[in-house]
Amino acid sequence: MAARYAAQNPNVSVAVISKLYPTRSHTGAAQGGVGAALGNVSEDHASWHAFDTIKGGDYLADQDVAEMFAVEVIEAVYELEHMGLPFSRTPDGKIAQRKFGGHTRDFGKSAVERACYAADRTGHMILQTLYQQSIKDDVAFFNEFYVLDMIMEGGACVGVVAYDLATGELHTFHAKATVIATGGNGRIFRVTSNAHALTGDLMSIAYRRGIPIEDPEFYQFHPTGLYKLGVLLTEGARGEGAILRNADGERFMERYAPTIKDLAPRDMISRAMYLEIREGRGAGPDKDYIYLDLTHIDAHIIEERLPDITEFSRIYLGVDPVKEMVPIQPTAHYAMGGIPTTIDTNVISDGRNTIVPGLYAAGEVACASLHGANRLGTNSLGDLIVFGRKAGVAAAAYAAGSDFGPLPTDNQDVAREMLASIRSGPRTERVAHLRRELQDSMQDNASVFRTRELLEKQVGVLADIKSRLPHIGCEDPGEQYNTELMEAVELGFLYDNAEQLVFAALNRTESRGAHSREDYRERDDDEWLKHSLVYKDGDGVRIDYKPVTLGYYEPKPRTY
Amino acid sequence: MEPIEINVKIKRFNPEADSRPYWSDYTLQARPSDRVLDVMHHIKWEVDGSLAFRRSCAHGICGSDAMLINGVNRLACKVLVKDLGNRIVIEPLRGLEVKKDLIVDMDSFFDSFKAVLPFLINDDAPPPAERLQSPEERARFDETTKCILCAACTTSCPVFWTNGSYIGPAAIVNAHRFIFDSRDKGTAQRIDVLNAGNGLWRCRTAYNCTEACPRDIPVTQAIEEVRRAMLFRGA
After folding, report:
1. Which residue of the set A98, A266, A271, A435 is catalytic?
2. Predicted ipTM?
3. Which of A53, A262, A399, B29 lies at 20 to 30 Å from A218 by C-alpha?
């Protein structure tokens, strides 16, 4: 919807195709804030934000992208405020800002208030505000349409094929320009903050259509998910002073990140938590969780600035954060990688930046690469407003200056065959069981810590799952609202996302950001300061590379 | 907590196959800490794949899974088995056309929402940075910014059940969100909408909406505040 807003151009017409009703999108679950160097609370500069983004990303971010982003996100936040977004406010009436993991002043000296927030529902407010603008502009929406294929002709994208959940019909959308903004793929893991709908559909479709996926091995685990459920408790809680403690009550982050402690970047904290648990200092009967301690914070601040996460804890765990410490564990949260794009959101098809005409991508599904090997907290919302806007402007300009590309007559064949093969499947395997095996094994073998042994084991698990995928089916013969059929389609997409991640992770013999190899513990800039590009190659994968754009900061050891 | 045996009755209707709704009955094991959504997933994934319902975020933020559970509108992902006991009865939201099982047609609900002009109206050129708003001004409409458009309030309203064209509490909540925003200048236009025949004056203060809201928005209070704003303006 951010791209839609920016695509207003008298010479083009725009429609939004959405798997869900637009207000159900998972942007609405984002809590803590959107980072922008407004300097409303203390001195801040875009260059500091860019540096934090690059360092947070363990020097895999493209530095020109981070520099551009840190400047443009300031304007994008003001634009949201002008649209009506109800940010929380400072005493003098400006947008309120708070501390967040990895946000520092003066290139790492101490924590800085950079996260612009609206209580702990910043994403909800962004989603609502963008939807409100869509109503104002009377936008054409196609809700509950599942995109099943991209239509490629002569190397260009000329539209998509989508399944209308209400009727079971396939629709061809013939487009001069297409923007992909479909979010992430966290459902490849068992414990995730991601919605059920986040099955990496378009990452899979692009992959099947010959477009590589960039850096899929970099997957972020957010430290503070509710124990077993994975429901997110915002980093804003630690921005307000919450502390992580092990079973002994020790503030263990003092040992891992002496300067910024509990506000270290997410990958570092998630690893520290795993290590504490592995060394026997986990809490609970199974010694498998960590505590988030807010009990020393004024109850009034908790209720006013963190009301939603307080409620989640009370409802789902029966724990009142005002009085008790909250059991947490790392939860699968964000794909740093995705469909590769230029700094201007054009999708590219190789390491030489060859542009796919008519195709753009923005947000979590895309990889510009802003986030590098580990995304800085709050930069997901920043990403979607900055790159959403760029994609909207670029796609509209391209559409205004071009004719419709020729539409292949067989454009629905792939989608139709996909559905028919599931409907006629033998049903000797259950979709839910295969999905659970996929999620469990990815969690066990390819999450926070990785080794060759575990990843090779996972390659075997994936091969087994792949061989069983043709045995699924669909009980429900109906056409209307056949959600069972859609879950089966999603399983195929999930599989591709898992495959991309595991092969790239096995290939990268170093540790960098969220990709942590216990058999290769050091970052290896000589060999691995480069992006992975994972292509589908027949029944297997092929991995190529793309250089990282440097130019502002030389890679240095990453300490906090 | 140990699993317990529960009985779940779900009202089913598939217009492609059924002439009228019927009840499906399931007996299964569930943990007291399970969400009703977990129970429904168990049924769909292990027992009957054709059961149709909407869901996405599974923690009460996206608003997809509002339904009538043991007689009360709630989000299936935000109510736990232990809060309901071992008999759970699930029906689709009332007052909206059932498309399949628990999936209802949301279009008329969103049409009412759109009618109140739910977007900031202010044609003044914005400043280069943010428009200023004090924390007190911001707090004035904080509650109504929480709305997730799940329709639990509107479909719990007895006025809405008898008159499906009543604009409903959710739309009024969203009018409140802008009427009490110090940056907004569209109150007159919104009040025109709320003054119409199927507008705010139909409200009979039944409080069902407030009880149904999964976001704890004081819906009836918001309606009262809008009503007072309309009277104050001589509507």
Report:
1. A266
2. 0.97
3. A262
